[in-house]
Amino acid sequence: ASFAALPIPSEDLLFAVLAFPVRLKDWLLAHDILGHPDDGILDQVLSGRCGKGFEAYIKARASQPCKCNICVEGKSPQLPYAAPANCTSKPLELVYMDTCGPFPVTSPHRNLYFQFFLDDFTNANAMVFLKDHSQVP
Q1: Phi/psi zone of residue 21: left (φ > 0), alpha (ψ -120 to 50 degrees), beta?
Q2: Residue 80 lies in a domain
C-alpha cells in the first residue's frame, strides 16, 4: 500500500512521527502515537518510509503481532442490547401522547393539529385531529 491510498495525508503521518522523540521505547508506543493504524501502515512507518530511527523496533514488531487493547475492543462485535423490561402490567396504565402542529395547510375538515396516543402495555394507538391548540387536554 502506498501513502497516497492512506486515509490520512502522508505529510500528517510524517509530522506525527517526527514530532515525537525518535527513540521510542517500543513499537506499541508508535502505534499509539500514530492513532492506532492497522499493521500495514505501522509496518511502513517502522520500515523507514516515513521516518528514521525505528530499525531497532522492526524485529520486535515482526516477532509479536499488535495486541493493542483499544484496537481489539474496537474491532470486536458488540453484544445486542437487552430487551427493555415492561414497566406496565395492565392496559392504560401508561399512555404516551404527542401533539403535532400547527401545519401550514389545513386538512379537508379544517384541522391544523393532531394528537397521537400509544398504550405502553397493549401497543394500541389512536390519532385525534384538532382544529385548534386549545382543544389539547
Answers
A1: beta
A2: no
Strands 125-130 and 95-100: unpaired
**Cell matching residue 43:** 509496518
Strands (E), the chain: 95-100, 113-119, 125-130
Tell me the pLDDT tens digit for each residue of 97-124: 999 999 898 888 999 999 999 999 999 9
pTM (predicted TM-score)? 0.40
Q: pLDDT band at 24, cuts 50/70/90?
A: very low
- CB pairs under 8 A, 24+ apart, for 6-14? 6/41, 8/35, 10/50, 13/41, 13/45, 13/50, 14/50, 14/51
Residue-range definition of the domain harbouring residue 49: 3-75
Residue 22 lies in a domain: yes
Give the number of domains in the chain. 2
Domain for residue 30, yes or no? yes
